Amino acid sequence: MENELLKKDENLECEMMRYRNNGLSYKLGFGGIACSIFAAFICLNSFNPNSFLVIVKILMNIAILLFGFLSIEKAKAYSKQGSIVLIVLGGINIARIFWVPLLLIINFNKWKNAAAGDKAQYESILGKTITNDTNNLINYLPQDGNFRGWFAIILLIASAAFFISAGVIGLKRAIKLENYMESLKENK
Prior knowledge:
Elements: H1 2-8, H2 10-17, H3 23-46, H4 52-76, H5 80-97, H6 100-113, H7 120-123, H8 128-131, H9 145-187
């Protein structure tokens, strides 16, 4: 019944938006954060913990988590700025695809095809979860760096899609509500 009324009267829908949160953007934003975290775990588990790359990756993920959470909270309240930041975070996650996961795939394949004496240069970058030939380690993923790299790419694509969807939906709804509020001011 409520949905039928909303279809008939757009003003009623806008009036209800004043009192309801933007739950869809909020949920999609959390999906983006979750996929980003899982991709970070895969990448961090695959590299040598003494690498400078790991420190940069951790700091970047902290920033994405903070800005992501603050932005989904703002998008939940129909903020255009929060929605735009979510779209930017989606773009950042697309850019992240071409950095760490590709480094993982490239270095793993070079390590795998290198002679026994040349493997040491790649073992300083790759973690023991990938380079250790024995199965004594407890891995939550296969040791194959290609699998890990592609899985991280898939998660980053999903994260970008979630963030961009949340931002676009939030931006459309924020503009719609803003236009409605302006029309109320004009009518007075």
